[in-house]
Design brief:
The protein has about 130 residues and is α/β, with parallel strands linked by helices. Helices cover about 20% and strands about 40% of the residues. A four-stranded mixed beta sheet has the order 1-4-3-2.
Length: about 130
Amino acid sequence: MNIKKIKETCLYVADLKESKAFYAGKLGFKQIGEVKDRHVFFRAGASVLLCFIAEASKQGGNLPPHYGTGQLHLAFEVEQEQYEAWKEKVKSAGIPIEQEYDWGGGFLSFYFRDPDQHLLEIVMEGMWERS
């Protein structure tokens, strides 16, 4: 038995309106779900990004409770040919790039923050497959 992939990941956010403006408005992710004052969901390629208000999801309900705090990290993979275009898209949206890193073998990534200070990364496709 093998796990195929991580299908969804979750960030805990303070303001759903800000999260929508950032992920849909600035990064262009398609919004696929929302429950007022609780969560907003986005399509990120073949994955789903879940943004929850921690205090709301902490209460549970139909599903087990969950929550978290702090500055989390996740990376979005892009085709190597689209890497520079993504870097320009982020810069053009007024989002500061904190760092760009050369992982060797021609693989690059860059880091930036969302409104909740989660550390986001754009990484070139194939980086993890080479090891």
